[in-house]
Design a protein that fits this description.
This protein is mainly α. It has one domain. The protein has helices at 2-25, 31-95, 102-120, 123-148, 151-175, 178-258. It is rod-shaped, with a radius of gyration of 35 Å.
């Protein structure tokens, strides 16, 4: 996109030079001056259409990227909040455990540490965060491109030059007659047809870009679903740890209340998740 902007800026400079030359020689330039000015008019029309199409495309792309970025940030915040609440709940359960379960608590802490490590180093979460940063950079780049390079001011200048050239062309057409007018009209009609074809091509490119964005949106839905599934699995394993903790606590206090002693020590099985 930056290459297109540079090309448009060079064309605008060229138009300014041609307009200045045409204004200095309009009094007695003759057929050569008329041809240059008509070519300037057609070039201005083409550049104006291209600038307007690119402006609309940039605005639409910025809006969609901002919306996608916001949704990804909300999803990451939700995941972090769920992890924080889960860790807080586990800490409360640990603080309520009796002193005789130090071994069990130690093993549970190791399991919790392993669970946190697996979640923090999950490749999907890492890729998700990297894509989020990349999207932010793309949004900033597009915003600086659409404002910093002064496309809106250049578009306004281009429209002004186009109106001036249209007035000159209108005056020449009134002075000309017969076959020359018909010939120039035919050329202009051909150029107009080319402009229409260019507009249709740009519309096709916009449609393809929209399809690409829709495809990326669907891929993001699949990624989010995968992350949610991983979170559900992690939460289920945490709940299993809590149940085992409660069961172990109850069984360890059973000899005190009933006098029954288990023939072997009771401890939860280390749960490996990666």
């Amino acid at each position: 996109m930056s290459g297109n902007v540079t090309q448009l800026q060079n064309e605008i400079k060229k138009l300014k030079q041609l307009l200045s030359t045409n204004q200095n020689t309009v009094g007695g330039a003759g057929g050569c001056g008329q041809g240059d000015s008509k070519e300037m008019l057609l070039t201005c029309i083409r550049d104006k259409e291209r600038l307007e199409e690119e402006k609309m495309f940039l605005l639409e792309k910025v809006d969609k990227l901002q919306e996608l970025n916001k949704r990804r940030e909300k999803s990451l915040q939700s995941i972090k909040m769920i992890l924080k609440l889960r860790d807080s709940h586990i800490s409360k359960l640990e603080s309520k455990a009796p002193p005789t379960t130090d071994d069990i608590i130690k093993r549970q802490r190791e399991e919790i540490k392993e669970l946190n490590r697996c979640i923090d180093h999950n490749p999907m979460v890492t890729k998700f965060a990297a894509e989020n940063i990349e999207l932010r950079g793309e949004v900033k780049r597009l915003q600086s491109l659409s404002v910093g390079d002064g496309l809106w001011a250049e578009l306004t200048q281009l429209k002004t030059y186009t109106r001036q050239l249209e007035k000159q062309l209108s005056g020449w057409v009134k002075e000309e007659a017969g076959s020359s007018v018909a010939m120039e009209t035919s050329k202009l009609n051909c150029e107009i047809e080319k402009l229409h074809n260019r507009c249709q091509k740009l519309q096709t490119e916009v449609t393809m870009a929209q399809d690409q964005l829709n495809l990326e949106r669907e891929e993001n839905k699949v990624k989010i679903f995968s992350l949610e599934t991983s979170l559900k699995t992690a939460n289920k394993k945490v709940k299993d740890l809590q149940v085992r903790d409660n069961t172990a606590t109850h069984l360890n206090t059973l000899p005190i209340t009933t006098g029954y002693h288990a023939p072997f020590p009771l401890s939860p099985v280390l749960l490996l998740i990666c």
